[in-house]
Amino acid sequence: MKKNLQIILIFFALISIGVAAAKKKEPLRLPSIALTLNDGSVINGFLKSNLHYINKDISVSETVDGKKEKYKLTDIDSLVVTYLDGEKMTLRPIYVWNGFFKKVDKTPVLANLCYSSDKMTCYMVPGRYEKTTAAVPSNYFQSSTTRKDAWLYYMQIKDNGDRISLLYTYIPSKKIPKVKSILSDIKNNFEKEDFKLIKETIESEGVTADELIDKPWTVLEILERKK
Fold first, then answer.
1. Would you identify the CATH topology of the domain 30-92?
2. pLDDT band with cut points at 50, 70 and 90 for residue 28
3. What is the mean predicted confidence (pLDDT) over 31-59?
4. CA 47, CA 221: separation in Å to the nearest integer?
5. What is the residue-wise DSSP string for 190-210?
6. Closest CA to 118 of 201, 31, 224
7. What is the C-alpha to C-alpha distance for residues 223 and 209, in angstroms, rounded to an integer?
């Protein structure tokens, strides 16, 4: 009887150890950063903000579990992010043209330079996509919002001055959009003659949707070659 009791106690002890191990939190892992401010000072640490959801500032900490410190985008010279898979991205603040208000935004966005030539430049900006459905009787009058990380590509054509305007918005999806859909999305971002040249070249050279998604600045390269 005593031996059986010992076995039972050992059994429950092993269960307790297993439960405790299961409850043990995984160590927090965050992208590391090197943040350079306009005054030349450098902060090395970890990123505490989702770059797709920042507005006027970002949060970083010197240690993984350390206190968050906020820095305004206007005070930043550059931000180098090293992701967990080893990939690095350098972002700098830029001021983009707001097509809705027809003026340059007062608040900068963090952008990665992804293409540059003597005549044209393309930037990649982490952004977000939000879609809200109105309340209807079929869903008990409850509205819903869908949010996705997105990438906004901006272009700067030297002949058009310093304006940095929207080129294309990429929203990751299971289904790759067709070339026709991509062309429809960028049509209003170009002068009529420029878009006509882009469209004709894409069709004649057989540029695929995969190529346009992978390198949206392909359309800028087309303009550079053909104009």
1. SH3 type barrels. (2.30.30)
2. confident
3. 96
4. 34
5. S-HHHHHHHHHHHHHHT--HH
6. 224
7. 18
